[in-house]
Amino acid sequence: MFGLRAVSSIVALCFAVAVKAMPSSNVTLGSGSPGQAFPPTPDLTAASWIWTSTKGLTGVAPAASAFRLTVFPGTAFNALGPSANISVAISVDNAYNLYLNGKLIGSGLDWESPNIWTINNVPTTQPWVFAILATNYVLALNSAAVNPAGIIASFVASSASTQKAEFWSTGPAPNPQWKGTNLAPDDFASTTLEDSAWPAAVVMTPYGGGPWGRPVPVPASLCV
To answer: Which region is the signal sequence (predicted)?
Structure first.
């Protein structure tokens, strides 16, 4: 395995996340519309694959890259109330660590086995910083095969008390824009990191496109 940090499996837990103050230079989300079931399930079919460049489609060197997104629930999610439950469906080629506000939420080692992670009782009074450390593995020596790299993820923030939900995914506008770098600093997941100079992540292809095709399997929920 290559990259700045080893990607390891952990047992998923539902837990409340303490949120710290952070820079206010990132995106603010708009509204979504809830589905029939409640709480809604994040849907990867509405998302797109992203990476630091379109080279993720055709093959990149084995390495770890870092991605960040800051969400401002106080203005976009007023209808949710003082806290929300966040569910994240995610698949990363090849492996990932997912963080919220500097805390490790979960890890995955196989893009063909996406996961759903749920974090309960996240305060909506301060921003949320999502961070992903994505690791692209080396292929077999002397292999001529394409070595693609990409992230696809979908998010739902919901409140049982208000029966409201908000949705967003990796993808083009109106989804918020992620930032990504191949030079991940040690504190890439920190809420206090200044990421205004990070380049925007590139939207490569919608679900079903590129070397990943379809269908990506239905994610397995890792928190009940």
So the answer is: 1-21
Query: Is residue 32 domain-resident?
Result: no
H or E stretch covering 14 = none
pLDDT digits (tens, 9 = 90+) for 156-185: 999 988 899 999 999 999 999 999 999 999
**Structural domain of residue 147, as residue ranges?**
44-221
Q: Which of 56, 46, 188, 184 is nearest to 111 (CA)?
A: 56
| Residues 69/27, Cβ–Cβ less than 8 Å | yes
Report pLDDT for 139. Answer: 67
Burial class (CB in 10 A: 0-12, 13-18, 19+), 68: buried
Nearest of 22, 30, 57 to residue 196 by alpha carbon = 22
Two tokens, residue 211? 């070397």
Tokens standing for 69? 């997104």
Confidence band, pLDDT 50/70/90 cuts, at residue 141: low
